[in-house]
Amino acid sequence: MATKGNSGDNRSRSSMSIFIVVGLCGFFYILGAWQRSGFGKGDSIALEITRQSDCSILSNLNYETHHGGDAGTIDESDAEVKELKACDDHYVDYTPCQDQMRAMMFPRENMNYRERHCPPEEEKLQCLIPAPKGYVTPFPWPKSRDYVPYANAPYKNLTVEKAVQNWIQYEGNVFRFPGGGTQFPHGADAYIDQLASVIPLDNGMVRTALDTGCGVASWGAYLFKKNVIAMSFAPRDSHEAQVQFALERGVPAVIGVLGTIKLPYPSRAFDMAHCSRCLIPWGANDGMYMMEVDRVLRPGGYWVLSGPPINWRNNYQAWQRSEEELQEEQRKIEETAKLLCWEKMHEKGEIAIWRKRINNDNCRDQDSQPTICESENADDVWYKKMEACVTSYPETASPDEVAGGAWKPFPERLNAIPFRISSGSIPGISVEAYQEDIRSWKKHVNSYKRINKIIDSGRYRNIMDMNAGLGSFAAALEAPKLWVMNVMPTIAEKDTLGVIYERGLIGIYHDWCEAFSSYPRTYDLIHANGVFSLYKDKCNAEDILLEMDRMLRPEGAVIFRDQVDVLIKVKRIVKGMRWKTKMVDHEDGPLVPEKILFAVKQYWVVGENNSTSPH
């Protein structure tokens, strides 16, 4: 199953910038690797950073401890290194839990076959996913929003299929994204301005958004101008690579669908949810999908629906659907919105906007009352069946009080005390503990930047925190040129993903014993704090590392923070994965048993010499 590619080297076909370094100097600029920009002219960002960097900081760090060698390591010269081979070339875009062939074995009803269906243990690939020939470093943001190198996702289907709608165009060796969409062929900016006439998108009050059935995520891409961050999702289906394009553009997105299981987000997470001709049957299944949107919307949050069936009287012929069918579809949507006690704010052209009430006080007297969900924990969602029931509001003391806490503008909300903490709804996390967490992670991140000097240079756009805690790693990094996918392990002792959303950050539930809902090569930097200690007795460390390798771009970086004995094992495994590593002491000195392991994945593609042995 896992085979080596043919030997050979296409280095001569691309510009190279080879940095000769002494000791650690240049470890992240980038280990003599071939930095490749969108036009194959070398990675100008990394080159400039290398030119400007003060290498004395790196060379003067004291890495020697009582163990000798790397901080906290032992002599591993006799330890056997297992060399992990490259997977066959056809696995280049492999998504283990959304594999197209496996999907066909599951029922199509309610999109079940497009949901997560992970391979059993015996079918997991024990090999490294190769990058396609010609793979290059994506452009820095904001250029990446508009241009993606063709070699990175060589799929032209959408350029033909969505030509009139201005999604994507093929120009030479790049794809260009003009910012159009099915409902906004003239560009996302004008469409977002229309929404901003009803929804407060310009004052920081709306910060987190959910885009259901996102296409290539142009809505999310252009919302960054308003300092709004969207979590976009779409299935892996006939629109080949739509989520892959979104991530190549530097826009947060996951492979996902509204089907039979709950969305992997906490309740009261998003300030706004959006569907632009997303083909989700909102009126079906007794309004279950709208009820799931209601669960993840904050009290006072907005729901935008544009496209069918809105304004069906004028559009039924263009949509090639019957008046009766569209009228019935809209009737069901309006009926469910009323049951949910949403207020209709706006309907003009093909755009309708509803607002969820700030609390339940306004809804007690309405004629029909929805079925309230029985589950006491609205955030217990991992592989849980979606239900046609409504999630209760948190209790309020007055008709004007916002259930779950008043909204704060961003960036103020980033370090304000979240309601979930001030109300004591997360046992064991006090206001003081939260504030201490913020201080600690500022210190940790400053320490990371002293080792990897290009963390906030623009080189890393898509960042993942695999065990996000309270989101303070992401908060310490917060900047317009990057975003962080905060992952809450489903086995974490405390579920704090709701806190992360209250801070104006985004994230997702996930179990690291399985593959993540993303394409290969979609993250520039991955942070793994305590992940391997957390999963020590749960699943194989090698499987988790192979999944990290799958998600990581060539020349992407990883920062592990864990106990020294755990990191020694991790270091041994990644030696056989074409990663370069360096272990350093904790910020508080060599006597702290927690250490930090920095790693960089080497550049290699299909057909190159696939040896993983250390050079």
In short:
The chain is of the alpha/beta class and 615 residues long. The chain is built from 19 helices and 17 strands. The longest helix is centred in the C-terminal third of the chain and has 21 residues.
Structure description:
The structure is a single chain. The protein starts with 43 loop residues before the first helix and ends in a 14-residue tail after the last strand. By secondary structure, the chain is α/β, with parallel strands linked by helices. The protein is built from 19 helices and 17 strands. Helix content is 24%, strand content 16%. The strands form 3 sheets. Strands 6-5-4-7-8-10-9 form a 7-stranded mixed sheet. It has a 7-stranded mixed sheet with strand order 13-12-11-14-15-17-16.
Helix content: 10-25%
Overall geometry comes to globular
Largest sheet: 7 strands, mixed
**Terminal Cα span:** 26 Å
Rg = 24 Å
SS-derived structural category: alpha/beta
Low-confidence stretches: 1-26, 28-69, 611-615
Strand content: 15-25%
Residue-averaged pLDDT: 86
Count of discrete alpha- or pi-helical segments spanning 4 or more residues: 19
Number of strands: 17
Strand order of the largest sheet: 6-5-4-7-8-10-9
Write the layout of secondary structure elements.
Elements: H1 44-52, H2 55-60, H3 100-103, H4 143-146, E1 147-149, H5 157-161, E2 169-171, E3 174-176, H6 188-196, E4 208-212, H7 218-223, E5 229-234, H8 242-248, E6 253-255, E7 270-276, H9 288-296, E8 297-306, H10 312-315, H11 323-339, E9 343-348, E10 351-355, H12 412-415, H13 419-422, H14 431-451, E11 462-465, H15 472-477, E12 483-489, H16 497-502, E13 506-510, E14 523-529, H17 531-534, H18 541-551, E15 552-563, H19 564-574, E16 579-585, E17 594-601
Parallel strand pairs: 4-5, 4-7, 5-6, 7-8, 11-12, 11-14, 12-13, 14-15
Antiparallel strand pairs: 1-3, 2-3, 8-10, 9-10, 15-17, 16-17
